[in-house]
Amino acid sequence: MSKAHVVGLGKSGVAAARLLKREGWEVVLSDRNTSDTLLKQQQELAQEQITVKLGYSLELDGTLPDLIVVSPGVPWDIPALVKARELGIETIGEMELAWQHLKSLPWVGITGTNGKTTTTALIAAIFQAAGFDAPACGNIGYAACEVALAETSPDWVIGEMSSYQIESSVTLAPHIGIWTTFTPDHLPRHKTLENYYDIKAKLLRQSQLQVFNGDDAYLYKIGASHWPDAYWTSVKGKDYLLGAKGFYIEDGWVVEKLQPNSTPQRIVEASALRMVGAHNLQNLLMAVAAARLADIPPEAIEKAVREFPGVAHRLEHICTREGIDFINDSKATNYDAAEVGLASVKSPVILIAGGEAKPGDDTGWMAKIQAQTAAVLLIGNAAPAFAQRLQEIGYSNYEIVETMEKAVGRSLELAKHHQAPVVLLSPACASFDQYPNFEARGDHFRQLCLELVEIGTGD
Asked: Which residues form the Mur ligase C-terminal domain (predicted)?
């Protein structure tokens, strides 16, 4: 019997292990961590004849596996995986394993530094409104291998793909590839901007049809010379379409131009999308592009766009207390995303920021803080460094409060004092210093805000 080793006991790793077990593999699943939750999972999977090793890092001694499958969060260049590839052991990511089982179906692959999740969720909503079974998977919704495990195959697979997932996918080739934005992120992992670009570009090169955000400075600069057959999108109008075909906003409408000399066609009013922020018009354009390239009629697109509620943890309106809106933007885990968050809400803002800082250029974000916030509340490991940065730019209205509980309680007092219409959690940081992931951080913020409202109404 062939032996497979799956690294990482998250949702993706468990789904990969189950898929391989169904295919007749002997499966070992390992995770370097251990906890009560993982121990419980270990017991459950043992009943499915899947061996789980906790507190274990992959070692290649003794009997070698025939296949190694890597969960999305596991670095591709850890010594054990480098050695495995040198030894000729097939080593792939969980997304690639799902692709190998689902490659007879058309995929939409969405990548980019920011904007992926909203674009992916909106594409899935449009395809589903058109009557397709089109689950969102990857970094959003299901793990890709969960889709492969389903009893019936979907019509389309809508996959949000991080650079980690693309890096560990060898043959993944979507029907439609979409690149939302490109800014420095994950550089501790990918080392250089060029490496990071090349990984993302791999997905687009292997896609039959390509859609690019023409308003992204980096992608626009590389432009038509790199991608002569691509469709480009622009909120600034048709003059910004590289290659003269794509999707743009004009007179308040999303307009398509499928060939340089074709007649433009209005598809949907931009105002149909309820989400705040100019960047969401760009997400709308890319979602409409995917739908139209899949021959979905404008009526289905309009219905889905009008009903689309937005994405949890991305400028998500939680509640209003005494005229103050509490907004959860926990998904803003880097400076660019947090800058977009501030640009998208009414000012002045009471901003809650901090967590585990990432490398990157914070100058744009700092300028937005200066221009749009009444006060900043700092949490997590990054708080002292962020406080120093704010001092350097001459901004003094900040407080280090350390925890989310203190931040939410204090934010209401400050919002009243400064007559600020918005309290915004937009951390510009990863969450791992205080939470397992950005979702848990956003959920905690939501819970605290709702408790605040209940206290205020005396429920």
From this structure: 313-429
